[in-house]
């Protein structure tokens, strides 16, 4: 697999269930965080911290016993930040076509042993899909930063 992509595959377990009998949203967010951490660390060869998770969408429920694929791919890099598109798919392991259940953008920052930001290799999209995703990721980053500013101003933190 390419250096900018990580894929986790596993079965949704009975311990992942919520009160409604489906997989808990928090468990799905943990899968997203873990796969995207692995993707950021693989790309930067550094320890990385989560900066922000944006546009997380719960499209369909995930069922216990389904085969899960969590694909995380770098779609944009800044100086120290890596912006990752994550898509979660679920299928019956006996053979149906996977359905997209979740997607989001999540941003990580590479840090050194003292926690200071470290420059990361630049991602240059080649495939058309990656080029399009980079544009959306830039938009998501700008939007998230604007929201950060709005929160800080409205709460008087600035
Ligand atoms: C992550 C952290 C180090 C960022 O510190 P900061 O001083 O606010 O960072 P900056 O404003 O300089 O931004 C750092 C990078 O993140 C990007 N960024 C900032 N806010 C962002 C947002 N809302 N969404 C996406 N990217 C964002 C910046 O563009 C910058 O990227 P660049 O280095 O490529 O230019 C700090 O907020 C922190 O320690 N947070 C806790 C992290 C954590 O505990 N994560 C969970 C466990 S791993």
UniProtKB/TrEMBL annotation:
InterPro entries reported for this sequence: Cytosol_ACT, HOTDOG_ACOT, HotDog_dom_sf, Thioestr_dom
Keyword Mitochondrion in record: no
Occurrences of domain HotDog ACOT-type (ranges): 2-114
A Pfam family it matches: 4HBT
Keywords tagged on the record: Hydrolase
The protein's name: Acyl-CoA thioesterase
PROSITE patterns: HOTDOG_ACOT
Family listed: Belongs to the acyl coenzyme A hydrolase family.
Residue ranges the record marks as coiled coil: none
